[in-house]
Each structure stands twice: as C-alpha cells, then as structure tokens.
Prior knowledge:
Elements: E1 2-4, E2 7-9, E3 11-12, H1 14-21, H2 25-34, E4 43-45, E5 48-52, H3 53-62
Antiparallel strand pairs: 1-2, 3-5, 4-5
Amino acid sequence: SCAVGDIAMKLMKPSEVADALGVKESTLEAWRCRGGGPDLPFIKIGHAVRYRDTDLIKIIEAGLRTREAA
C-alpha cells in the first residue's frame, strides 16, 4: 500500500484484477492494447503492469444497478 495525498491505495497485479472482475488476464491485456471493456487505467513499472485498487473500485461501482433496463 502507499498513500498519495490523503488517498491510500494498493497497486494490484493483473491476476488480482482479473479475479476481482471475473475475467481472464488476456481480456485485461486486450482492453489495454485494443480498447473495449471498462476504461480501467493502468500503470507501467518497467515491464510490469499494475492497477490501482481505487480505480478498480470505481469501475465496479460504475457497474452497480438496481434493476435491468427495459
């Protein structure tokens, strides 16, 4: 975990994000490279890809619904 300003965040591996979203890691890679899927920012540290847990939470919350659209 790290803190930036008043926001504490954790950097997550693609495998962790894929598990949380119920998709394959290859799906995350496709979203990063070709677009599509949710607009999920990512961080490159050398060759490693990481995601902020705060961004993942926003994506999940954006998908919350109380009922299906007709």
